[in-house]
Every structure is written in structure tokens, then in C-alpha cells.
Amino acid sequence: MDSKTLFEKSQKVAPGGVHSPVRAFKSVGGNPIFFKSSKGATMTSVEGDTYIDFCQSFGPNILGHRDPDVSKVIEEMVQTTWSLGACEPYSLELAEFMTQAAPWMEKLRFVCSGTEAVMSAIRVARGATNREKILKFDGCYHGHYDGMLVKAGSGLAGKAASSSAGVPEVLAEATLVAPLDDEQALEAVFKEHGDQIAAVILEPLPANFGLLEQRKEFIEKIHSLSKHYGSLVIYDEVISGFRVSMGGMAEVLKTDPDLVTYGKIIGGGFPVGCYGGKAKYMDLLAPEGPVYQAGTLAASPLGMCAGLATLKKLKDKNIHQQLEIRTSKWVSELNSLLEEKSSPFVVNHFGSLFWLHKNTGKSISRVEDFDSDMGELYAKLFHNLLNQKIYMAPSAFEVGFVSWAHTDEVLAQALEGIKKAL
Ligand SMILES: Cc1ncc(COP(=O)(O)O)c(C=O)c1O
What are the φ/ψ torsions at residue 375 (nearest 5 degrees)? Predict the structure, then answer.
């Protein structure tokens, strides 16, 4: 059956034919491709076409699809166990590895997604401070927990409105929204609401509305204001954790968040999330303390062993550094090509994350810097790239991922394809 037929059938049994909205190609138009298999840097469609994949499952596959070393460990675990609902040694091994790599995280707990990690970390912050308000930034995404589905509202500093039907206004009102890269606005929000803010949550490398790298001074301001007003700082490292370095952005920035959330890479492609931080906060969790959180499939052995195998390989082979060099070279070649072709696009990158976007002539650090026709232009390029068998994320605002499986040869081949697509 071809992709078109499968999509028609899917629409009858799943809303919009998908299980996560962006997969439906709504923002780029056309029919989504159905993929049946994947290997390394590539995915193969049901039609039998093989694409170079720069989406890589939206981030988890830092080693590429079905890395052979991870695959071996998974196969062994399948022969051992895959769901226990009881104490086991596998999560302990991963937890020890992670707390060593990210020492500001003294204790952690595994959950099944990034959304769950964020929701739980926020609950801990509220439990720790006895305050209700959470401050987030416009241009950061934290999953689909009700309190995070908000947008900047009109009126008073920081007030938010729900951005999804089904989110009660009282929950939206417990969230404040500030712009990125703006110390003054941040100060204004703290001045008005500081004594009610339980925590500030941020992607220390915002990578969900493009790649909006922030100035270190801005991040430091978040820390100093939070400290002054007694609010916790939560780093959402669901994308950046173990992606930009073993210690994620907290290591890169040399900062000390109170709580951190992880997902994607730490499960090696299986549904794993985690939140952690200072023991004095994490010990508030049941069964030790009064903050409740639980999960039937939490710390499922397959995810634990796939995650650990992935993280160990990243460390043992010093992969981050090599990915940085590889990506940096490729991005620079790509930018030369874009310039040569007088393309309206440009690419920026941070480590192995990159963002192909409309060139506005300056670096983009917040949502207000976007040009309004960014999505439309990207949609055209996206389809031209598909014709060249290159798969980018089906949205102008999603970043791309270079994986360990994107060797120099694969990247050179991709560059050739992009040249034709342009
Ligand atoms: C920074 C960040 N936080 C949270 C989430 C939510 O994670 P999940 O999709 O696993 O629920 C995402 C997902 O893309 C994310 O990028």
C-alpha cells in the first residue's frame, strides 16, 4: 500500500491521521510519507525510496537509526526482560551514569516522555516553594502539559493565555510568559510577580521555534533574579541534554540549575524521560516526601539499556566533539552553497543541531525576529528536498539533527541533493 492510501486509511482511525500533529505535513502541505524502516542516516518509505534523514525522530537518534552497538544490547535485553514493574538494576546503572555526567543532578527519576518530565519537575518546584506561578519564555516549548500550553497574553507583564482548547484559564493564569533575550522584560515580570514564582523554566538552548541561541548574560540574569526572589530554575534539556555535550547546556554554560528535565537521547529511541536535580528538592517526591508522581512503565528495561548504551558510546568515542567538527564544516559548505545560489535561506548551528531558515540578515534570538513568510518559503524547499530524497523536519520551525551515522560521505551526498533542490 502506498503512503497516500495509508494516510487516507489512517485519517479514519486517528485524528488527522497521526499520533503527533507535525507528522501530518500540515504546515508544509502535501501527503505525509509513510516510512517502513530505517538504518543509520536513512529511512525507507513504503514505496521503497530511501531518504537521508535529518529529522532523526526529532532528536533521540544521535547515533543514527538502529545503531549496531545499541541494537545488540536491545536484542540481549529482549531475551532477558522488558517490563517488570519492580525494582531492577538497569535504571540504577543509567541513573548512576547520568548523575555522574551531570553532577548538578544529585538525584533523578525516570518517566516516559519529556512532557511528563516537565510536568513532574514543575510539581516538585511548586511543592518545594509553596508557590504556584511558573515563568516560561515565548519561543521555548516544553511539551503538552496543560500549564505549558500557553502564549503571551495581552495586558500586564507576563500574563499568559492558553494556546490550546481544553486548557482551563486558571491553569494558564498560573503561567507567566516573558520574551527571550530581554533582561528588562524579565526584571519587570519578577518585580511584579517574583514572590509568587515557584520556578522559571527554559530551554537553555531554545530549539523548538528554530534554534534561538541565547546570550550567556541573559541566562545568568535568569539565575540571579531567581535566586533573589527565591524561585527555582528548571532547565528543560529534553533536546539539548546529551546532544550538545555529555553535560548538556548546563555544562556548556557552566551554570547550576535546581532541576533539569531530559528525554529523547536518554532513551536511545525508546520512550524515556527523566527529571532530576538537587537532592533536597527531589527528596520531596513520594515515597520520601509529599509530592506525588508515579508510572507503570517508568524505567522500562528496554529504554534503560538502549539509553545507557547510547550514552556510553557517546562518551567512549568522544562523539560530541567529532559531531561538532563535522556539522560545523558541513554548515559552512551549505551556507556557501546557499549564497552562491542566491538562496533566501541560511543555516545556523550549535553542535550537531542546525536550523535551515529564511535569512533575515541578522541572527535570530526570539520569536519577534521571524519573517512572516518563513513557513511558506520553507514549505517549497521542503518538497524540493523530498524530491532529492532528503528528509528534513516537516515544519519551518523544527531544527535538524546531524547524527553519528551522517558521515562526511553522507553529508557530501546531502549537499549535492540540496544543490539540486535549490
Ligand atoms: C525542550 C522540550 N521539552 C519537552 C518536550 C516534550 O517531550 P515529549 O515529546 O517527549 O513529550 C520536547 C519535545 O520535543 C522538547 O523539545
Answer: -65, -45
